[in-house]
């Protein structure tokens, strides 16, 4: 479902280069919650941003649902990207738009009919428990509520993959747990594949099926969470 083959990313050029990822291979199955953990600078953010080509790999292939994204032209890539939702540490909401319009935004971009947008936005806001807040602006929401808007927006395009880039790192422990519970519910309801990167072990232990430990741009260990973290 997600297949990274020989993924390499080098930043900078001649003389001043940093290799963030080095010939990394990884397979993630459909419906799986897959965690990537590692210290700051290990390459986690680069890895997750390569899955939707927010970051273009220097070498290697990125396959999602049987399509090699690295071979696509601009418009085909835009089409495929709709299958990949993403949420962020700092939510990345439009501050001058209401909750409703933030969730509607990706649908408006592709000229979805108004009644279809309305149905989808209401469905998504119900899913994340924010029906009563649709007319508020992001500044009027708590951190947990902002991330719920982020999740609703990411899911509005019916993606098959959700990428979570340190999605709970700005939240307190209790709010983190409620967001992880929501991700778990969504994973079960839609059989959505979830890839999350974090530096927090308890996030991985809380919801992930499998985990990869990344260090200096390579995977040093991977497997079921219980095997990787609870070895004698
Ligand atoms: P992590 O998310 O695990 O903290 P990153 O993927 O952000 O790791 O970074 C991996 C390495 O790549 C680090 O050495 C970092 O300094 C470098 N790096 C990340 N982004 C850039 C960039 N835009 N330009 C140059 N170097 C970068
Ligand atoms: P546009 O900015 O494209 O003109 P509108 O703001 O007129 O869109 O809204 C279009 C439709 O979206 C409205 O008819 C309404 O059903 C729905 N809508 C917009 N904002 C909200 C909101 N805060 N809560 C519930 N529904 C809303």
Describe the structure using short key phrases.
single chain, 232 residues, alpha/beta, 6-stranded mixed sheet, 4-stranded antiparallel sheet, 27% strand, globular, binds adenosine-5'-diphosphate
H and E order? EEEHEEHEHHHEHEHEEH
- Shape designation: globular
Number of helical segments?
A: 8
Indicate the mean pLDDT.
Answer: 96
Q: What radius of gyration results from the CA coordinates? A: 18 Å
Structural class estimated from helices and strands: alpha/beta
Bound molecules: adenosine-5'-diphosphate
How would you name the oligomeric state of the polypeptide chains in this document? single chain
Largest sheet: 6 strands, mixed
Please estimate the helix content.
25-40%
Tell me the strand order in the biggest sheet: 6-7-8-3-9-10
Give the tally of β-strands: 10
Which spans have pLDDT < 50 for at least 5 consecutive residues? none
**Gap from first CA to last CA:** 32 Å
Q: β content, as a range?
A: 25-35%
GO cellular component, one term: plasma membrane
Protein name: Methionine ABC transporter ATP-binding protein
Keywords: Amino-acid transport, ATP-binding, Cell membrane, Membrane, Nucleotide-binding, Translocase, Transport
GO molecular function: ATP binding; ATP hydrolysis activity
